[in-house]
Design goal:
Shape: globular
Number of helices: 0
Strand content: over 45%
Structural class: mainly beta
Strand order of the largest sheet: 1-2-9-6-7
Radius of gyration: 15 Å
Number of strands: 11
């Protein structure tokens, strides 16, 4: 299968997220690894690792608009929502206190179920970068 998502992880947009003045987690921006948009139920999930710490799906929320976040297990119920090719989506990762200021090694694996009729196959892409909070 062709590798479309060599740059799934965006350099811009990596930051701590604050609620009521307190860091509650951090944000990573990603683009779709497929050459077309896909409905939310075809988003197979994400794995996020920062500095050797793996954050499970229960800690990750997804949003295309940066406002309406869904837990990964909720994506399958949003049949009419589409993640379009070129849209930079937001991954919000829950981590009390956020990340310390400075350099961090970030690895994101993105899984997308792509339609190749008469079946669907899962495409996974991984990108590792050093980013700064």
């Amino acid at each position: 299968m062709p590798e479309y998502g060599g740059n799934i992880l965006c350099e811009m947009g990596f930051k701590n997220v604050y609620e009521l003045g307190r860091a509650t987690g951090f944000q990573v921006r990603v683009v779709i690894s497929y050459y077309r948009g896909v409905p939310f139920p075809m988003i197979g999930g994400f794995d996020v690792e920062v500095d050797g710490t793996v954050y499970g799906p229960d800690k990750i929320s997804f949003s295309v608009d940066g406002v309406n976040f869904l837990k990964l297990d909720e994506l399958g119920t949003h049949l009419d929502d589409v993640w379009e090719f070129g849209d930079r989506a937001y991954l919000h990762i829950e981590k009390d206190g956020g990340l310390a200021r400075g350099l961090h090694t970030v690895t994101v694996t993105e899984r997308v179920d792509v339609p190749y009729l008469p079946f669907t196959t899962q495409q996974a892409q991984t990108k590792k970068m050093t980013l700064v909070v």
